[in-house]
């Protein structure tokens, strides 16, 4: 998304719309854009710098790390903010800044049941909270702090 600095009035500019997905340029495995990037931004120029704030959203297709099925996920950046120094050109491309925020908001370990809209068919991980008390009590053991307390560290 290129911003023409001469078209930004002194009060600032509000932009709302859609752009091509900024992730298509990257060869990211198991991440594919579904539709355009939606933006709702306020822009302005102040003291030789371009600033922008607002919200951006991008729908992507991810692969679940548990069941390996593909699912749709919407990446939302409700507090997108940008402040960059201007170095001469009349246009500034803010696509790299939007791409960075979208990539930072990608789930590290995507699960298809994350939003509660579906049930993952992958293997379930049991934790102490999900293990029945009769089974959990059998595997309990005391902490080994007693051995550490016997150490004489003051000499």
Strand order of the largest sheet: 2-3-4-5
Structural class: mainly beta
Number of strands: 6
User: How does the major sheet shape up?
Assistant: 4 strands, antiparallel
| Distance between the first and last residues' Cα | 67 Å
Uncertain regions: pLDDT < 50 for 5+ in a row? none
Secondary-structure element pattern, one letter each: EEEEEEHHH
Q: pLDDT average, as an integer?
A: 83
Strand proportion: 35-45%
Helix content: 10-25%
- Put simply, the count of helices is 3
Shape: flat
* Radius of gyration over C-alpha positions, nearest whole angstrom: 25 Å
Summarize this structure briefly:
The chain has 155 residues and is mainly beta. It is built from three helices and six strands, in the order ββββββααα.
Strand and helix map with partners:
Layout: E1 2-4, E2 13-19, E3 31-46, E4 49-63, E5 70-85, E6 91-93, H1 95-104, H2 133-138, H3 145-149
Antiparallel strand pairs: 1-6, 2-3, 3-4, 4-5
Question: What do you see in this structure?
Answer:
There is one protein chain. This protein is mainly beta and 155 residues long. The protein is built from three helices and six strands. It has helices at 95-104, 133-138, 145-149; strands spanning 2-4, 13-19, 31-46, 49-63, 70-85, 91-93. A hairpin with a 6-residue loop joins strand 4 (49-63) and strand 5. The protein is flat and about 70 Å long.
